[in-house]
Design brief:
mainly alpha, elongated
Length: about 90
């Protein structure tokens, strides 16, 4: 890589815009992690009380897991498609 290529890459607005989106998705990933943890705890408590897991919580957990996967794929450059809220909420 020569100096011109490096200069072009450093001044490219696309790279800096992606950095802003990546920062946003890191924050959303943290929020999704907290929601997933709450879903796990609620599912455990529900299964203790009722004797079986809750289907709605299982479905929610599956959607959150799919969302986390999409965010991670974007963050590690395996996908250029921005996850929710710039795309539809994932349906597993």
């Amino acid at each position: 890589m020569n100096n011109e290529e490096l200069k072009h890459n450093l001044t490219s607005a696309d790279h800096w815009l992606r950095l802003l989106f990546m920062a946003l998705f890191v924050i959303l990933l943290e929020v999704a992690g907290v929601v997933m943890l709450a879903t796990i705890v609620m599912q455990f408590l529900f299964s203790i009380i009722s004797g079986s897991p809750n289907d709605n919580l299982r479905h929610l957990g599956n959607q959150i897991a799919s969302y986390i996967y999409q965010v991670l794929q974007f963050l590690i450059y395996n996908s250029e498609e921005k996850p929710f809220p710039f795309a539809e909420w994932p349906q597993p």
